[in-house]
Amino acid sequence: METKEFWQNVEASSKEECWPWVGFIESHGYGRLRAPKGRLVLAHRVAYEKANGCIPEGMCVCHRCDTKECCNPDHLFLGSQSDNMKDMKNKGRARSLRGEKSPRSKLTQEMVDYIRTSPNAKILSGVELAMLFDVGKATVYDVRNNRTWTA
User: Fold this and answer.
1) Local structure of 118: helix, strand or coil
2) 3-class SS at 127?
């Protein structure tokens, strides 16, 4: 897509404000467009490239503003995937599926409370508790020692 045609799909205003992509928005909230050869690309990555040149391989284009459809080059910066995840976590946007909410969890909060506090659980071995709750003995050990299911 030519530069002029690209920017016609961006609602640009002052340098401080977000410039939303007004074209197609994907289900995760990011602007998308079709690049040469029919490949779909993220609009904010194209905006960064048009303003700053090529994006080094493996680098993410991150948003300072946390507005997924924003294409304002002043709001965009390069970072590794790790940088992007740290930025997301630092801004409180990381979705954490912990405890019962984790699709991999076999235990409920009630089971964890039993393992940690029940007088009966104190006299049972880790192997016995593991068999009782159909989990591995390492899971019971980790719960008992607060290595998992922490606040």
Assistant:
1) coil
2) helix
| CA 122 vs CA 50, 97, 113, 126, 138: distances in Å | 63, 28, 12, 9, 16
- Whose CA is closest to 100, among 92, 110, 90? 110
CA distances from 33 to 9, 45, 47, 136 (A): 10, 11, 11, 47
Angle (CA) 52-90-98 rounded to 5° is: 125
**What's the CATH number for 3-90?**
3.90.75.20
Average pLDDT over the chain reads 91
Structure tokens at 38: 């029919």
Query: CA-to-CA distance for 41 and 22, rounded, in angstroms?
Result: 15
CB atoms within 10 A of CB 39: 8
Contact present, 107 and 79 (Cβ < 8 Å): no
- Other CB atoms within 10 Å distance of the CB of residue 23: 17
Where do the structural domains in the chain lie, given as residue ranges?
A: 3-90, 99-144
Q: Residues 70-85: pLDDT tens digits? A: 999 999 999 999 999 9
